[in-house]
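Appendix B, Record 12. Input sequence as logged:
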Amino acid sequence: MTGGLSGQEQEMLRDSVRAFLAARGDRSWAALVDRLELGEALRDARQGAIVAEEIGRARAALPFAETAVTQWLLERCGGPGFEAAAVLTMAWAEPGMRYDMADIAMTARRDGDGWRLGGSKSAVGWAPACDRLVVAARTAGTVGERGGLSLFLLDPALAPNLRTHAHRTIDGRPAADLIFEDQFFGADALIGKPDQAIDLIEEARDRATALLAAEAVGLLDSLLAQCIAYTGQRRQFDRPLADFQALQHRMVDMYLECELARSAAWLAVEALDEDAATRAHAVSSAMVNIARGCRFVGQQAIQLHGGMGMTDELPLGHYVKRAMAIEVEWADADWHLARIAG
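Logged structural output:
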């Protein structure tokens, strides 16, 4: 299921990423990409899914999905290339809009040989740490129309008037709200065809969502493993908790959700190169299953650990917070259900 990689090569990639993330020392994005030479995994979603799964298993805060999808978007638009270690992200969400890309209201108007951008973007993941930013803005039409959207590649360091309100998300990752106040950018900021970007934006979201689904698989596997280890060590009535059948049944249900999430995530990854309708159905189906799995496995993990499962001192709580973030990142389960229903 990973394109040109043999089964042995898949396991080698998985083992390499897992070993790197398990080791002490520098676990930064630049170190991961440099030491493991993951440039190909950024371009190939099947290899990327393996990397994303291991990132989820280790709960590593790395901009993998954001950078991989933005790299893909730049290639599709004929934009400039960047080193694999560059942190790239995409800004599309805005205050007041939900998940319909046609509702993007930020404007970009021509001004001489350049563009002036005006409007706001909300909760842009990794924006405080990014090297480049791809922004979706309206160059024609009105809010609600599918036509009229374009993409702009921006260097935040060259935008002194860009107002950035940095914050941390529930899972501790960096994000920022961006306010463009008639900010000027050169003509080369526009990438791809003007007024025709909505299909690419939607496909980019699907690709990012598929990688998030793969990350969730590793995350859920780790939650289950932590529960198995804890219930095997914790004793009550002179017996390990794992000896109680009721708790065994709970962990079996968790295992079933993990396996369902795995199958759904890989189905989404395999569908990324299909037509738009098939891709959308597979990705949304996967995220409905992933969202349910994240909620169920996360809640059961906390229940099995008792009160200590809620503490910041225990890694499990941080895994659950990341699972909660994945549930609604890019779009929530209700929106995915509505998309499946047509």
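Residues 199-341 form a domain with the Butyryl-CoA Dehydrogenase, subunit A; domain 3 fold (CATH 1.20.140.10).
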